[in-house]
């Protein structure tokens, strides 16, 4: 069976809001095993405290008049918070509810997911590239960190993340020990344009 590479119509990216919590939770459930997905409580916390660090890729569905928006379907998202850890990387503690540190300059991506139906269309690259560009230009922080499964390291390297080694905090936890988790980081640099 060949994968269809045609992109869906009426796609757009916008910040997530608390009203999106149910769709975000459903996508987390589809995209991650139970031990890796964010709980609804954690999703709501992130959407309430750091909506500017949570981005959604949606498809708009229109009424028959082709003008009026009927609804929108979330097909991908990124969830983030700001962290301030001694290692400057994600820890189990920094992923918990209540641990967003607004004054920090380090943005932690806790979740990147694309609905299975829309995978293999470079939509994760599109979403991450948009996310990085917006955060760079808004000067919200100085760097983005992520923990990635070892097999996903080349994907994140293609969008500018650098490998910093194995995350021992997460690997030493029995709920995450089934695979290697790698620390990755990307500096945020504002794009300068000539006038």
UniProtKB/TrEMBL annotation:
GO terms for molecular function: aralkylamine N-acetyltransferase activity; diamine N-acetyltransferase activity. GO terms for biological process: chromatin organization. One of its GO terms (cellular component) is cytoplasm. Residues 11-187 form the N-acetyltransferase domain. PROSITE patterns: GNAT. Keywords: Acyltransferase, Transferase. This is N-acetyltransferase domain-containing protein. The gene is TBLA0F03600.
């Amino acid at each position: 069976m060949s994968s269809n590479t045609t992109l869906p119509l009426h796609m757009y990216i916008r910040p997530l809001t608390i009203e999106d919590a149910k769709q975000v939770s459903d996508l987390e459930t589809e995209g991650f095993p139970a031990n890796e997905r964010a709980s609804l409580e954690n999703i709501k916390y992130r959407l309430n405290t750091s909506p500017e660090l949570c981005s959604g890729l949606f498809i708009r569905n229109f009424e028959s008049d082709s003008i009026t928006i009927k609804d929108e379907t979330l097909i991908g998202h990124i969830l983030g918070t700001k962290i301030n850890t001694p290692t400057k990387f994600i820890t189990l503690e920094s992923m918990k509810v209540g641990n967003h540190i607004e004054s920090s300059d380090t943005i932690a991506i806790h979740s990147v997911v694309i609905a299975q139906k829309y995978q293999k269309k470079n939509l994760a690259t599109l979403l991450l590239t948009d996310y990085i560009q917006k955060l760079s230009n808004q000067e919200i922080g100085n760097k983005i960190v992520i923990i990635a499964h070892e097999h996903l390291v080349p994907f994140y390297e293609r969008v500018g993340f650098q490998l910093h080694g194995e995350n021992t905090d997460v690997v030493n936890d029995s709920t995450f020990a089934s695979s290697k988790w790698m620390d990755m980081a990307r500096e945020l640099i504002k794009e300068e344009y000539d006038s």
